[in-house]
DNA sequence: CTAATGACGGACT
DNA sequence: CAGTCCGCCATTA
């Protein structure tokens, strides 16, 4: 599997995240690991940083619910508009976390 | 080829 | 609850 295909897999999954819900980098990595074999949260983060434009990147946050560095303001505004439960600048993962199984 | 580097995560202090 | 420490793994230096 080439890096290019990795990127496509990640972006494809991110596009499936429903509005008002979010996924952590780790969750994306796990869900993708079943198809691609190996993947890590770190790798997903790198991929989003480089090829994240063009997909709802704001629906991907870290496991603690913290928004992506450098885009906090933008992400917060979009999430708020979608009705994602926020506590300060953190996403309430317990309520907003989503997985492809649903 | 080895070393450092992240849009990370979980355990621990 | 905040800060550290270590494992993670493709990419870059």
Q: How would you characterize this protein structure?
A:
There is one protein chain. With 102 residues, the protein is mainly alpha-helical. The protein has a single domain (3-96), classed as Winged helix-like DNA-binding domain superfamily/Winged helix DNA-binding domain (Arc Repressor Mutant, subunit A), CATH 1.10.10.10. Helix content is 51%, strand content 8%. The chain is built from 5 helices and 4 strands; from the N terminus they run H-E-H-H-E-H-E-E-H. The protein has helices at residues 3-16, 25-36, 41-51, 72-82, 93-96; strands at residues 23-24, 60-61, 86-87, 90-91. The strands form 2 sheets. A two-stranded parallel sheet has the order 1-2. It has a two-stranded antiparallel ribbon with strand order 3-4. Helix 1 (3-16) packs across helix 2. The longest helix is centred in the first third of the chain and has 14 residues, at 3-16. The structure holds a DNA duplex (13 and 13 nucleotides).
What is the helix fraction of residues, given as a range?
40-55%
Major beta sheet summary: 2 strands, parallel
Number of separate domains: 1
Give the CATH level 1 class: Mainly Alpha
Gist of the model:
Residues 8-82 form the Methylated-DNA-[protein]-cysteine S-methyltransferase DNA binding domain. The protein is mainly α and 102 residues long.
Defining key terms:
mainly alpha, two-stranded parallel sheet, two-stranded antiparallel ribbon, 4 strands, DNA-binding, globular, 102 residues, Arc Repressor Mutant, subunit A
């Amino acid at each position: 599997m080439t890096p290019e295909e990795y990127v496509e897999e990640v972006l494809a999954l991110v596009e499936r995240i429903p509005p008002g819900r979010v996924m952590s980098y780790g969750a994306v990595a796990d869900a993708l690991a079943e198809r691609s074999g190996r993947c890590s949260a770190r790798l997903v983060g790198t991929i989003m940083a480089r090829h994240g434009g063009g997909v709802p990147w704001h629906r991907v946050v870290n496991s603690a619910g913290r928004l992506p560095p450098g885009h906090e303001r933008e992400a917060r505004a979009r999430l708020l508009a979608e009705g994602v439960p926020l506590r300060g600048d953190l996403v309430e993962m317990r309520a907003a976390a989503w997985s492809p199984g649903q």
